[in-house]
Every structure is written in structure tokens, then in C-alpha cells.
Design brief:
The chain is built from 15 helices and twelve strands. It has 421 residues and is of the alpha/beta class. It has a seven-stranded mixed beta sheet with strand order 3-2-1-4-8-6-9, with helices on both faces. A three-stranded mixed beta sheet has the order 5-10-7. A two-stranded antiparallel ribbon has the order 11-12.
């Protein structure tokens, strides 16, 4: 028992310390992408005519019932300083006037049709947008994003400079309610702690890549070599699946962190957040239920070890002696007095908790503070309520597994039955 606990504690603490080091590296240096400064504007890459007179960039936007946010996105695209770009919005059979709002901006609005059998709605909408596009580069953005005026020029310059076939940009995250402030940083901290950008950019590892449907730019020819959205038509997490298809086809992948380039407000409040994460928080293939359960179970154990077990250990060390007068709770007292609360385990739990807080600080500071207008990185509640956010995240993973396996997933009024990846 003591040896197993020691190994568990060492793995958990070491993993969190490594995660902090990875987050520190990811948010600085070579992985950061900032908007090009105004002094660099003008000329071939500025507001003048594009070289050759052709369309350089096509921005593709899927939009279904997005009237609350589509105006903000399109206003930010209207303000872009890149010449030779077009914006294509696919109004995916909205019932709230999304298309009418979009037509008030400088964009082409396509009235989408219902997806064919085997297609998910967003994937089909983007397939229609690409079919109507003419640009050398394809920039896929979500309707709940908005962008710096130099964002499009910045991403075109960066993908050329990096000689990449796809450039994924991880942007800022606006979080308003406390549910958003606790749960979304939990998922971002988890994902980025497990992400290895060096390995992702290595063509020898096609399955190691992070997508981001909020902001991803593809070279047109590379997109079609990868099979386009046709190749991932039934994938819920289509952004990850598409960049992996591109790597398998020999394309060059690049990723950068650009919280000043692009910003997203994914979900508003606990209800919308819960519906969003139960759609895809678990990796599920309905045709391989045993594998899906195994992967989700492993993820739950990993998250508990990474996020919650230090609180359990420290809680056991501080609660009052639970033994009743007749000794009926003696088993819990023995558990509490065992090596679970030995000095070495307590020390490891304390170090791990400090590492968890350090990781949250980095995510808040670099992704959330500026877009949210609140210095969450300095807010005590953001740290003291961390286990609550992790618990909700864990629950959403389990709910996502059960919902997807049962075929009950719904999103924006449509029933979704598909593979995660």
C-alpha cells in the first residue's frame, strides 16, 4: 500500500511540475504569435492590391442560430487590413435571423441546405463554404470569435514564413460567469499540459496534432490533398481530425498561441457550457464501445490524479477524527492515519497543489485575463474553487460518454451521432 501510494504521489506531482514547465514554454518564445504592428502595413502584404490581383484568403464561417454573436465577428472581419480577402458565411438554416444580420456586412452569405446522410452540420456547412471560395488560403473561424484588425494579414504572413500547410492558432478565451471561469480553464490546462508542440510539428507523428475550429488556416491545395471536410464528415471533433488527415497526407503542421490575434467566447453560463462539453468532452466511437469506455475511464483517473487527489489528501489530514463512540467509523480513522497522510505524501500533495495553481495562473494570465476584462490570475476564488471546476469537468466527460454511446447527443437542434475523432 505504501509503495503504491508513493508511486501514485510521485507520478502525480512529477506530472504537474512537467505540465507547468510545458505551459511556461508554450506561452512564450517561439510558440507565440502576435499581430503584425501597424508600421508593417502597406505594400504587398498590406491594404493595397494583392500581388497578381487574385484572391489571397477566404474566411469560411459556419453559422447556425448565431444572431447574438455574428455581428461582432463580421465587424472584426470588415476591419481587416489584408487586401484580396473574401468572407463566406454559410447560414446553416438558422431560425433567428443570422443570415439577415450577416447580409449587413461585407461578406457573401450562402443559404445552406440540410446535411446529407453521414454528414454533421458544421462539417457540411464548411464544405459548402469551401466550394464557394476562391482563395489561396482557407481560414476557418467560428461565429463566436472576433479578431484583431491585422489577424488575417498576420496569419497569411505566418503560414508563409513557417512554410506550413496548416497553421492552428490558439486564441484568447473570454469567460464571464464563474462556471465558465472554472470549467474552461480546467479543460485548457488539461489539454495544453498534454500537448507537445514539437512532436505535433514533427511529420513523423501524424496522430499528434491539436486542431482549433475557432481559428485555423489551411493552404488550399493541402486542404484538398487531405480530403477536405469530406474526409471528416462524421467527426464531432472535426478540427483535430482534419489536421491529422493533413499530416497523414504529408502536409506540414504548425501551431502558435495568439491570444491577441483572435478571441472566443465559447459558452455563456453553466447550461450552455454543460451542453457544449457533453457533446465532445469524451473520445467516443459508437461502434467501439469497449474502447470508448476504456479511454474515458483512463481519462477520468488521470484527471482525478492530476487535479483532485491533493485536495483529498490534505482534507483527510485536516478533518476531525471520524471515529464514533462505538468505534463504528474506525475504518476511516485507520485510513486517515495510514500512509495516505504520511509526511512524505502530504509534502507531495502540497507541491502538486502549488503546481496546479501555477498552471491555472498561466492559463488565466495568457488566455483569459485580457479578453475577460478581469484579472482572474490574481483572483483568490479562481484558485480556491479549482476542485469544483475539475469536478464539473469530470462529470461532463462521463456524461459525454453516456450521451454519445446512447445516441442522444443534440446540438443546435440537431441530433448528432458520429465519432469523436
Amino acid at each position: 500500500m505504501s509503495l503504491l501510494l508513493a508511486l501514485w504521489a510521485a507520478g502525480a506531482t512529477g506530472g504537474r511540475l512537467l505540465a507547468v514547465a510545458k505551459l511556461t514554454s508554450l506561452f512564450s518564445g517561439r510558440w507565440r504569435l502576435d499581430p503584425l504592428p501597424p508600421a508593417a502595413r502597406g505594400g504587398e502584404d498590406g491594404a493595397g492590391d494583392p500581388a497578381g490581383g487574385g484572391m489571397r484568403l477566404s474566411v469560411c464561417v459556419p453559422a447556425r442560430d448565431e444572431s447574438a454573436v455574428i455581428g461582432r465577428l463580421l465587424a472584426s472581419l470588415d476591419a481587416q487590413d489584408l487586401a484580396g480577402m473574401e468572407v463566406i458565411v454559410v447560414d446553416d438554416r438558422s431560425s433567428d435571423g443570422t443570415g439577415d444580420i450577416a447580409r449587413g456586412h461585407r461578406c457573401t452569405v450562402i443559404d445552406g441546405v440540410e446535411p446529407p446522410d453521414g454528414w454533421l452540420g458544421k462539417n457540411w456547412a464548411l464544405h459548402q463554404a469551401v466550394a464557394a471560395s476562391t482563395g489561396e488560403f482557407l481560414l476557418f473561424v467560428d461565429a463566436d470569435t472576433w479578431h484583431d484588425p491585422a489577424a488575417c494579414r498576420t496569419v497569411v504572413e505566418a503560414i508563409r514564413r513557417l512554410e506550413a500547410d496548416v497553421l492552428v492558432v490558439l486564441g484568447g478565451q473570454r469567460v464571464e460567469s464563474w462556471a465558465e471561469r472554472l470549467v474552461q480553464p480546467f479543460f485548457w490546462s488539461l489539454l495544453l499540459s498534454l500537448f507537445n508542440p514539437e512532436r505535433a510539428e514533427d511529420p513523423r507523428f501524424p496522430d499528434d496534432a491539436m486542431g482549433n475550429g475557432q481559428f485555423a488556416c489551411f493552404r488550399r491545395d493541402a486542404y484538398f490533398r487531405a480530403g477536405g471536410h469530406q474526409a471528416v464528415r462524421d467527426r464531432i471533433v472535426e478540427d483535430v481530425a482534419l489536421v491529422r488527415e493533413l499530416k497523414r497526407a504529408g502536409g506540414r503542421y504548425a501551431v502558435r498561441v495568439g491570444p491577441s490575434v483572435t478571441t472566443t467566447h465559447m459558452y455563456r453560463g453553466l447550461g450552455e457550457l454543460w451542453r457544449g462539453f457533453t457533446k465532445n468532452a469524451a473520445v467516443v466511437d459508437p461502434d467501439r464501445k469497449a474502447l470508448s469506455v476504456t479511454l474515458t475511464g483512463a481519462a477520468v483517473v488521470l484527471v482525478f490524479q492530476a487535479e483532485l487527489w491533493p485536495w483529498l489528501v490534505l482534507g483527510l489530514a485536516t478533518v476531525a477524527d471520524p471515529v464514533t463512540a462505538d468505534g463504528g467509523m474506525g475504518w476511516l480513522a485507520g485510513f486517515r492515519a495510514s500512509s495516505v497522510t504520511s509526511p512524505a505524501i502530504l509534502a507531495a500533495a502540497g507541491v502538486q497543489l502549488a503546481a496546479i495553481f501555477a498552471g491555472r495562473f498561466l492559463v488565466y494570465r495568457h488566455l483569459c485575463d485580457a479578453p475577460s476584462g478581469v484579472r482572474l490570475s490574481r483572483h483568490p476564488l479562481a484558485y480556491m474553487l479549482q476542485p469544483l471546476g475539475a469536478a464539473v469537468g469530470l462529470a461532463s466527460m462521463v456524461a459525454s460518454l453516456l450521451t454519445q454511446l446512447g445516441g442522444h447527443t443534440r446540438w443546435k437542434g440537431r441530433r448528432v451521432r458520429a465519432r469523436s475523432l
